[in-house]
Write a structure and sequence with these properties.
Length: about 200
C-alpha cells in the first residue's frame, strides 16, 4: 500500500496553487522551539513542505534545509517560492541514512495510513543522525477518516500516537495538545510531537 492516498493526491494536484498560496500563518513559535534543539546551521529535512513557507523560514535563519513534498505540483509551487529545487519524495521512499540533524514534518504525516505509520516512523528514524530530533503534527481523533475535500487522515488519539512512536524506537517523546484549524476552516484539535533518535 502506498502512503499517498488517491484522494489526497488528486486534491493536491488539482489545488496546488490555491493551497500553496493560501493565507497561512507560519508556525513561528513551533519552528523556533524545534530549531532551538539544533546547532546553528544544522542539516534539516522538511517533509511535506507544501508551499515552502516553513523551509523559507528555516533557510532565513541560516539552517541547511532540504525541502521535499510527495506532490509534484506542490513541489513546483515551493520551488517558485524558494528559488531552489524541491525533491518529490513519498514517505515510503525515504532512504537517507543518518543524514539529518532534524526533521520537520508539520501537518503531513497525518495523511499516512494507520497501518503504514510505524514503517514511515522507522524510515524517518534511520534518516536522522544519532541524537537527531523530529517535529511532527497530527489532527487528533479516534479513528481514521476523510475530510470534506476527500483527503484521508489517520486522526490518532494521543495514547495511540505515543505507542506508535515508542514501538518504533523513538525517545524523549513529548506530545502537546492544542486547538487550531485547517485548510477547511473548521476548528481542529492538534497533536504536536517532539521526539528524538537515541544517542547510541
Amino acid at each position: 500500500m502506498t502512503t499517498i492516498d488517491d484522494g489526497n493526491a488528486s486534491f493536491y494536484r488539482d489545488n496546488a496553487a490555491a493551497y500553496a498560496g493560501r493565507a497561512r500563518r507560519t508556525p513561528a513559535a513551533r519552528l523556533e522551539k524545534f530549531l532551538a534543539r539544533l546547532q546553528p546551521g544544522a542539516c534539516v529535512l522538511e517533509l511535506g513542505c507544501g508551499g515552502g513557507q516553513d523551509s523559507a523560514y528555516m533557510l532565513a535563519r541560516g539552517f541547511d534545509v532540504t525541502p521535499t513534498d510527495g506532490s509534484p505540483e506542490l513541489a513546483m509551487e515551493a520551488e517558485r517560492l524558494l528559488g531552489r529545487p524541491v525533491e518529490v519524495v513519498r514517505f515510503e521512499e525515504l532512504c537517507w541514512r543518518e543524514r539529518f540533524d532534524g526533521i520537520w514534518a508539520e501537518a503531513c504525516l497525518l495523511h499516512v495510513p494507520r497501518t503504514e505509520l510505524p514503517g514511515v516512523l522507522a524510515r524517518i528514524l534511520v534518516a536522522l543522525k544519532a541524537g537527531g530530533v523530529l517535529h511532527a503534527s497530527f489532527k487528533a481523533g479516534e479513528m481514521e477518516g476523510r475530510d470534506g475535500f476527500g483527503r484521508y487522515y489517520n486522526y490518532p488519539s494521543r495514547d495511540w500516537l505515543l505507542r506508535r512512536f515508542e514501538e518504533t524506537g523513538w525517545t524523549a517523546i513529548d506530545i502537546e495538545e492544542t486547538d487550531g484549524g485547517g485548510y477547511d476552516g473548521k476548528p481542529t484539535p492538534w497533536l504536536h510531537v517532539a521526539a528524538s533518535k537515541p544517542d547510541n
